[in-house]
Specification:
Helices cover 44% and strands 8% of the residues. By secondary structure, the chain is mainly α.
Amino acid sequence: MKSDNTFKAEYNFLHEFIPEALEESTQSLADFITHHFQIAPQTTDYIENQIIDPKKGVNVEMNIANLELFTLPDDLEKQLFDTTSLYRLKLSDDPIQQLINPLSDDMNDPKVIADLIANFGTECFGCYLPMHRFYNSKTTPWGIYLFPSIISANVKFLHKEFPHLPIEDLQRYYTWCIIRHELFHYQTERFATAMEILFRDPYYLEYSEKIYDKYAYTKHWLEEALAENSVLQSKLVSNKSSIPTKVRQELYKYDLSRMPAGYRDYACKYYDGPEKAHCVLAAQILHLDDIDPRPTKIYTIKNQFITQKESVPFYSVQGLRILRVW
């Protein structure tokens, strides 16, 4: 688990000069996963025909003996780049194969997956643990976590809706979509960290609590909306897929239509499009408000697309046996 390959210098700077920008986490992986699937509000008002008791959460039964973490190897000679973000991924020969899990009976239930998507959006397939909270954690190290059993179950469902596409191509494409989505959260934190170092003032944690949480599951949830927009526009995803562009867009937008507000608001229509939404999000991070004048597009998360070339740790969470929204 190599969590020192990025953010080490930044973390040390914050720890020495802006310690209030950091907080520690002692959550175990099982505790974190359980918490991860319980924090989202039930979204019965967003999705039609969902039979969900809003007073109940999610039951996650984990087989700790089968819980396994791995990092994507960093010794691959060939470095692969996203031509939009110039973001370097250090990959194994076939990382997608490592992420395919046998499905439990529960995961074969289409309603279980539909309920997870309706309530948690893309985060039911993976999540990002920020450096600001998890850098020194021994039980839940910072980085991108993927839930391959849920990804595979959704791919199985999508194959029924798009039967002309080989399921292996769907698996590869959709996994890269989730990776790109979570990379946006990583790039959001890198942007905030750069501003913290530049101005010697904490931003990220306060933004997370006062803006990200405040607008969760609404059309104003810009970090999630722009993360989805980055997937739809990503050259990384395009380069990893043999599926035609028009079909890829149709497929992913179909899934986004089943997700809560924020995720499905990838067009950022309320903000006159993604370009202006990026400026608003930068203002929210820096000022906890949509101020005017807003930062220009030079000073947004997009600048991390072209400047950030280091890798981020990836972890595959194995052993999710029961995962059901009641």
